[in-house]
Structure formats: C-alpha cells, structure tokens
Amino acid sequence: MPPSLKALTAALARLPGIGPKTAQRLALHLLQHDRESAAALSHALQQSLQGLQPCQRCNNFSEQPVCPACEDSSRDSRLLCVVETPADLLVMEQTRSFRGRYFVLKGRLSPLDGMGPKQIGLPELLERSLDPELEELIIATNFTPEGEATAHAIETVLAAQDRSPALRITRLARGVPLGGELEYVDLGTIAQAFRDRRGMT
Length: 201
Known about the structure:
Layout (H helix, E strand, L loop, with lengths): L2 H11 L6 H13 L2 H17 L1 E2 L6 E2 L5 H4 L4 E8 L2 H9 L5 E5 L12 H4 L1 H8 L6 E4 L5 H16 L7 E4 L15 H9 L6
Parallel strand pairs: 3-4, 3-5, 5-6
Antiparallel strand pairs: 1-2
C-alpha cells in the first residue's frame, strides 16, 4: 500500500465506530470512485479546522468568539444545561424542548485517560454558576458510568461552593422510553423508572 494511502486509512480508522477494514474501504472508495467528494470533504475539514473555535462562554463550536446561542437574547438566562459534548448540545436543540443556555464540558471524568475536573472544565462551570440571573442548573451528562461520575462531581463541587441558595441543581430523568413496552425494556431501566416515578397531576 502506498504511504499516502496508508496514512489516509489510518486517519479514517481513528474516527469513532470505524475499524481498519472499513477505513480502508472508505479510503479506496473516495480515491477510486468519488474524488469530487473527497476533495469537498478535505476542503470542508480544512475550513472547519481554521474557522471553528470554542465559544468563550459555553465551549460549543463557533465561528465567532461568542456563539449565536449565547448571543441570543431570547433564550432564558435563568436556565443552564450542562452537557458533555457539542454533539449532545445538538441533540438537545433538536428536541426543541429547551430554550435556556448551555455549558459544554470538555468531555467527562476519566482518570485513566487523564481527564480530571480541570481538564473537563469544572472551574469554568463553577464560574458560570455564580451568575446572579441563574436559577436552575440542569446536569445532562450521559447515563454511562463516566457520565454518572461526572454528574456526581458537578453536584458535589456546586454544593461545596458559596453560591446563591436559590440555585436549583437538577438531573435529567431516566426511565422507560416513550413508546417502550416493559416486556422488552432492560431491568436496570425499569428499576430506575420506579425510583424516578412521579405523580399523574
């Protein structure tokens, strides 16, 4: 395999969910059958690397120092949703159920990967939590072991700091998915749904 093709395959294999075989197949397809798309991909990637930076307020990707969501005066400054990644923020926006502001962590706690509180941006989050307008901080980390550890760390650090007692700390609810049938839902999810049950009114 030519060195340049080997380098392209190795680069594609570093993407999540793409193994060496798939990476090789993608590289060969782009070079043999779709060079136009390969050129467009290369151009878009270069533009993104040069033009995107973390927003100074929320850490989401932005072409300006402060992103449009943080600049949007129609958003509710009393609500702050904390997510792990820009991808999680996009999912939240697609639900059209949240019109507050965001804070994007730089990942999740994972000591084995060298990701501690400072690396994921907890000091910056603490600073945001001191905003006098803020009334509720919603922790929307993933329900993985690392996401749960991150949520617990956020809650612990916020509880220990000198902040307004009016600030509510909440966590996304867990339970049976919409349209789910109990027979096919895993036991852990059903148990969590029982613990998080709420009234009908």
